[in-house]
Every structure is written in structure tokens, then in C-alpha cells.
Amino acid sequence: MTGHDSLVLRVAGRPVGRYVTRPELPARLSPRPCLHPVTTLAGTAVTEFSPADHLHHLGVGVAVPDVEGHNFWGGRTYVRDRGPTELDNHGAQRHTGFQLRDPDGFVEELRWVAAGTELLRERRTVAATGLTDAAWALDFTFSLTNVTPDPLTIGSPATNGRPGAAYGGFFWRARKGSEAPRVFTADREGEREVHGTRADWLALTGDTWSLVFAGATDRTRRDPWFVRTEEYPGVGSSLAYDERPAIAPGDTLVRRIVTVVADGRLGPDEAATLVRKAVSP
After folding, report:
1. What's the pLDDT tens digit per position in 7-62?
2. Mean pLDDT across the stretch 148-170?
3. How many angstroms separate the Cα of 14 from the Cα of each of 3, 73, 103, 137?
4. Which among 46, 236, 255, 6 is positioned nearest to 135, based on CA atoms?
5. Among 211, 177, 222, which Cα is nearest to 16's?
6. Any alpha helices (H) in 51-204, and if so which ranges?
7. Under a CB-based contact definition with an 8 Å cutoff, are residues 165 and 155 in contact?
8. Which residues contact 276 (CB under 8 A, 6 or more apart)?
9. pLDDT of residue 4
């Protein structure tokens, strides 16, 4: 991945993630700052950037397919009664600066721009924290403020007529292996059982790695999970599952996701224990 103004996140001096603020990408991929590669403490990569199956999947970040008709996800737009359609409606997230920049995290300001107009201003806070000798946590908060004079609504293919495709918001494109990863919550297992449900945490495990995602605020925990394992491995927190949330002029939408990144295959008890440690005040 090429880009400018990249920084490296570290846990106890060990690199665990690279953040690129200005990736060099075509407009149809909705260019946006992202984390890639993200690795376990042992160095195993747990993200993918612009893979062949979905070129617009960019590691870890925030991506929204429909902000008042503008595509900040990349690729085709789902149009009701037409299906996925190539449209010239892509926006871009533009890095404007860091308010704080340390080896273990940063606070960033961004502008969401489409058709020459700034729609949203974002403050993004990211921190990396060690948990054990084999696990660390990525704490990711984004705050979207409507800077236009009118309400802005956020949509997804699901709200536009494609059931189950409620992607949009925080999204993690995981590493694709020879077999589909296992996905489970405290009381459910498998893509069909977990996708679209609300759960305090959700785990995705590969052969040698585990990711455990947790909503870290009451409001974030009310968003259902978007899960893919068979077609590709990816997990997101759905902003627009069955309705379009609106952000009034000057108002701010805030979400916080904490992700445990661990070596080895965690079971439910281990996942729950690490999440409690990662999200506890």
C-alpha cells in the first residue's frame, strides 16, 4: 500500500499497525484513511487491503455506503429496483491533521467531502493497549458532525432494498485464509446465527489468530453486527440496519469499538475475559 503521512502504532515498543492518512487510490474506491497492516503481537497480519474480491475493502476504518446519496464505501452503489450500479457518486475522507500523535495512538481530524461539498467533519481517536503477552486491544472511536445546513441521513444497501446487507460504519476486513474463520458470540455461532444480531462482543478466529470486537458504549452496543465469513472474512458495526439514522445540522454521531487482537484461537471464555479487560474503565 502506498500513501503519505503514515504512522506506526506500537504496543510496548512493538509495531502492531500502520495507519495511512492519504492512500493513493482511484476515486471509485472512496479513498479514506485506514489501518493496514494490523498484526498480532507475534507479527501475524489480520487485515487485508484492496483484495481482489473487494478492491474497496481497506483494512480497518470507517466506511459508509450512503450519506445522503453519496458513496463513502467504494465500489458500486445499491439502487432500489436496479441492484448494484456504477455511479459517479463517490466521496472521500480527507485527513486534515493530528491533534495528538503518539506511538500508542492518535487523535485525527477528517473532512468527508463529496461533489465538492464538505458533509461531515470527523474526529477519530485510536489507541493501542497491551493486554497480555499474546493479546492487545485497538480502541477506535469516531465522531461524525453534520456541517451542512440540512439533516444528513445514513443508509445501507439494506435500507435501500437489499435485505441483510446492512454494512456501513466501523469495518474490519480480515485476513483470508484457506478456510473460512469461525465466528461466535457468547451464545451463538456461525455466520447465519450471528449476522444481524446484537451482542456485547463477537469473535472471529482463524488458524493462528483471533479478533474479538466489542461495542464500548451503550449506544454502540445497540447496533447489530454485520458479519461475513464464507464469501470473505469481515466484521462491521451497522449504523443503518433497518432504518436511516439522521444527523441534524451541528449534531454529532459517536461510536466506539474496541477490538482484541490475539495470537492463537480463542474460545468463548477466553474471548469474554479479554474483552472485559479491554473495555473496563
Report:
1. 999 999 999 999 999 999 999 999 999 999 999 999 999 999 999 999 999 999 99
2. 96
3. 22, 31, 10, 13
4. 46
5. 211
6. 191-194
7. no
8. none
9. 56
